[in-house]
Design brief:
The complex is a heterodimer of chains A (308) and B (305). By secondary structure, chain A is an alpha/beta fold. Chain A contains ten helices and eleven strands. In chain A, helix 1 crosses helix 10, helix 2 packs across helix 10 and helix 4 runs parallel beside helix 5. Chain A is globular. With 305 residues, chain B is α/β, with parallel strands linked by helices. In chain B, the strands form two sheets. Chain B has a six-stranded mixed β-sheet, with helices on both faces. In chain B, strands 3-2-1-4-11 form a five-stranded parallel β-sheet, sandwiched between helices. In chain B, helix 2 links the parallel strand 1 and strand 2. In chain B, helix 1 packs across helix 11 and helix 2 crosses helix 11. The chains are: A alpha/beta (308), B alpha/beta (305). At the A-B interface, helix 8 and helix 9 of A face helix 5, helix 8, helix 9 and helix 10 of B.
């Protein structure tokens, strides 16, 4: 089944939960609140890993009796990242979530575990968006790891995103490789990447998916139709499923427009052993809870082998 | 302060005289837009191109008939150089792209010898009207420069500040955008942003608050910024968003149009007289706003009259 909305995601999380979630350094109120609500809704069975005093203090602040859930005490943040990631790869939890740890610590831990497992899988962040009026998800990627990926790195990013969309039940996701290429200014690196990635996709390098011609929102929505006459003419259904961003600056600026536009964002790294949630340090409880639900659904589907 | 697109048009209508707008090789849609701008009493159009063709287009545009000047010039390239010449010789106030291919037009306009460049660098500002309150925000550079250097960004910001002045935005607040709000030597945009913010702090841009690096969540939301330890009067109330390079600027402007459904009008900055580009993602209605902005600029920055 193709999962199309956050409403479906939370229903599925209720139905398929609880999943075991390694919670890495929950030391922020909004974050701990989301874990509490996820636990109460039976999405998750949390394993809290972090500094005992800090966890205790913040849990008390949000009224979460953490004596009722599993806790592992570890003060060093890289050790927390390593431990949580190792648990995910050992299968002792179904999913993991970044709390108040620098993201780079998490990426380092995942890269090491993937290498140890010999999967060849790289790390990239897929940020799903629910847009009102569009009855399906879209995603921006890579919104977290690669600062200035070259075409080879982008190929890996596409592979990871296509995997996520297959997991979510989108059999042949459409991908736009975004670029600042426009009527003036000549060709630019991001457009050269688009050309080579298109060739790779056509040769089947990314499995079932399609890279569309358009490399900008203008081209996506206007195509050959000529200029934008009226806003009412904008047909949202032309939006591809996956938007490969040219670099980290672009990815972050675009994807966090959920602070401004009526869209919802759910960011995760999908490792070979399950989802790793990557909420932004500025995210609020609702958004983090939604991300937990998304993780539950992805974990369930990866286990079920639905993507194969 | 001018807070909405209708206010831009209203302000432009207070012009001392109708501005002369010159268009090389206009097409039907541009003639229609000219008709509307004439009906609003904003401008007086000078149309350069194949006389017969223009006559037949004008006939079909009742708002325009009679109220225009026509120059017969069948060669497209010569029509462009004549248009630029008219601006240089103060025979017209505003240059529009008309039917000239974008790269050819921009190349000619920004030519250091024969063009209209007045500042060291031209840049493009996307002006957006917020959906929920009467406020305009400026996003730049969204069209001209591919990968601006730090000195380029300084000029891009100065260009935007000039426009903010025309829009009467007092003590503008500037967010220099990057992927993260921390200064990270591995992410060059954060270094440029930090330097620009420091220049702002030293009042090198005048009465302006520059904050950076800011990621977009910090720029948009004061509470989100505070949770990341960024406490600034800029966060949550930004007038000018400076983007790191064209991949970001171009995509941001277009996403706000197509997904955000925000009204956008663009302004080319850095030329001696207002120049209006013809971008496909600016709606027909908003092209009138672009004309009004050009009229305001011609008016405020001194007309030839």
């Amino acid at each position: 089944m193709m999962i199309r909305s956050l409403h479906e995601v939370s229903n599925l999380a209720k139905e398929k939960g609880p999943k075991k979630l390694a919670v890495l350094a929950p030391e922020d109120g909004e974050f701990m609140m989301a874990v509490k609500e996820g636990w109460e809704k039976k999405y998750i069975e949390p394993v809290l890993i972090g500094h005992p005093e800090k966890m205790k203090k913040i849990a008390a602040e949000v009224g979460f009796d953490i004596s009722r859930v599993e806790q592992i005490f570890e003060a060093d943040r890289q050790a927390v990242a390593n431990l949580g990631t190792a648990m995910l790869f050992a299968g002792s939890v179904d999913m993991a979530s970044k709390g108040q740890i620098p993201t780079s610590f998490i990426y380092r831990a995942i890269i090491r575990e993937e290498a140890r497992a010999g999967t060849g899988r790289t790390v990239s962040v897929v940020s799903l968006w629910e847009i009102p009026e569009l009855n399906r998800f879209i995603a921006f990627t890579d919104t977290g790891v690669n600062i200035k990926p070259d075409d080879k790195a982008k190929a890996e990013v596409i592979r990871n995103a296509v995997f996520v969309f297959h997991v979510l039940g989108y059999p042949r996701p459409k991908i736009a490789v975004l670029s600042g290429l426009r009527e003036i200014g000549g060709s630019i690196a991001s457009y050269e990447d688009a050309l080579s990635l298109k060739q790779m996709a056509a040769a089947g390098a990314f499995g079932d998916c399609e890279i569309v011609e358009a490399t900008s929102f203008g081209a996506i929505f206007l195509g050959q139709k000529g200029p934008l006459i009226r806003y009412d003419d904008i047909d949202l259904s032309r939006m591809p499923d996956i938007l490969l961003v040219p670099n980290l600056d672009t990815g972050n600026v675009l994807v966090k427009l959920d602070f401004f536009l009526p869209v919802h964002r759910r960011s995760l790294v999908v490792t070979s052993k399950g989802p790793f949630l990557i909420p932004s340090r500025s995210d609020f409880c609702d958004s983090i809870l939604g991300e937990i639900a998304m993780g539950v659904v992805v974990a369930e589907r990866m286990k079920g082998g639905i993507w194969t | 302060m001018i807070g909405t697109f209708p206010e831009i048009i209203a302000a432009a209508k207070k012009r001392t005289s109708r501005k002369r707008v010159v268009l090389p090789f206009p097409d039907r849609q541009q003639i229609d837009i000219m008709g509307n701008a004439v009906a609003m009493n904003l401008i007086f159009p000078v149309l350069i191109g194949d006389g017969k063709k223009i006559e037949s287009l004008v006939k079909a545009a009742p708002l325009l008939s009679g109220d225009h000047e026509m120059i017969d010039e069948r060669d497209q390239s010569r029509s462009l150089s004549r248009a630029i010449g008219m601006i240089k010789e103060n025979q017209a106030d505003i240059l529009m792209q008309g039917g000239i291919e974008p790269q050819t037009f921009v190349h000619a306009v920004l030519d250091t010898k024969n063009g209209l460049l007045s500042s060291k660098l031209a840049s493009f500002v996307s002006v957006f009207q917020l959906l929920r309150r009467d406020k305009l925000i400026l996003v730049t550079d969204t069209y001209i420069n591919n990968t601006p250097s730090l000195p380029d960004k300084q000029m891009i910001l100065e260009n935007a500040l000039r426009l903010a002045g025309i829009l009467e935005i007092a003590s503008p607040r500037v967010a220099v955008l990057a992927a993260i709000e921390q200064v990270n030597p591995g992410i060059p945009s954060t270094l440029d942003a930090a330097i620009l913010a420091k220049m702002g702090e030293r009042k090198q841009f005048g009465d302006v608050m520059v904050e950076g690096p800011l990621d977009i969540d910090c720029a948009l939301n004061q509470e989100a910024a505070a949770r990341k330890g960024v406490n600034s009067i800029v966060t949550g109330n930004v007038d000018i968003y400076l983007t790191p390079e064209i991949d970001t600027g171009y995509a941001l402007a277009q996403l706000l149009v197509f997904i955000g459904r925000m009204q956008m009008a663009g302004v080319l900055m850095g030329t001696a007289r207002p120049v209006i580009l013809d971008l496909p993602f600016v709606s027909v209605e908003n092209k009138i706003v672009e004309i009004a902005l050009a009229v305001l600029m011609a008016e405020r920055e001194g007309s030839h009259e």
